Automatic annotation (TrEMBL):
Pfam families to which the protein is assigned, alphabetical: RVT_3
Protein's name according to its UniProt entry: RNase H type-1 domain-containing protein
Native species: Hibiscus sabdariffa (roselle)
Transmembrane segments: none
InterPro entries in the record: RNase_H-like_dom_plant, RNaseH_domain
CDD domains (UniProt xref): RNase_H_like
Origin: domain of life: Eukaryota
Domain RNase H type-1: 2-58
């Protein structure tokens, strides 16, 4: 299950095949989906996906390097703390 906060992307990826002129990234995602596993795309509200939104906003769009976070950043820690307190 892949949760995405952009409904247009969910619709695009649920189409079954990349549309004519799709970017190489979209075509690559469709190729990955053809492997022997079940993949489903689901829309989630951005407010429900705050950690991912925070991480996405923390990097430059031109920066495609992989990052490994051993501990959450301060903004992510704050979101996790608030989310955890709501569960209690």
């Amino acid at each position: 299950m892949v949760e995405i906060d952009c409904l247009d992307v969910v619709r695009l990826l649920s189409f079954g095949a990349p549309p004519q002129g799709a970017s190489s990234l979209v075509r690559h995602i469709f190729e990955l989906c053809k492997r022997e596993w079940d993949v489903s795309f689901h829309h989630v509200l951005r407010s429900s996906n705050r950690v991912a939104d925070c991480l996405a906003r923390s990097v430059a769009w031109e920066d495609f390097t992989t990052r490994l976070f051993r501990v959450p950043s301060a903004p992510v820690s704050q979101i996790l703390y608030v989310d955890g307190s709501l569960l209690s």
